[in-house]
Design brief:
Blueprint: E1 16-17, E2 21-25, E3 35-39, H1 51-72, E4 76-80, E5 95-101
Antiparallel strand pairs: 1-2, 2-3, 3-5, 4-5
Length: about 120
Amino acid sequence: MNPCPFCSILPSDILAENEHAFAVRDNFPASEGHTLIIARRHVEDYFQLSKEEKDKAFELLERMKEAVDTEFNPDGYNIGFNIGEAGGQTILHAHIHLIPRKKGDAENCRRGVKGVIRRQMNY
């Protein structure tokens, strides 16, 4: 069994943290500044986190959004969770994606997160 890559992140890679979550840059970013907010406790997905863990993850998400605003000056964001294999989750450890967006970085930005389901791309 492979060890969880999120459970072995080096302290030097952590951008910010609190008692229930930490933030790192995504190793396979969708855009410049793509950041992950990762639960400290190893559970598979967001729905397994306690209310306090969820609250602290979102507190850190807000903090990282401000930092990404300052460093990368994006025009928008996608924020999301991939849950389960069918939902595109590849690392079974609860985390949130903070994906900065720039005008013109995609052909049809109206699709937003619905773009993950092809039939929802044109609405």
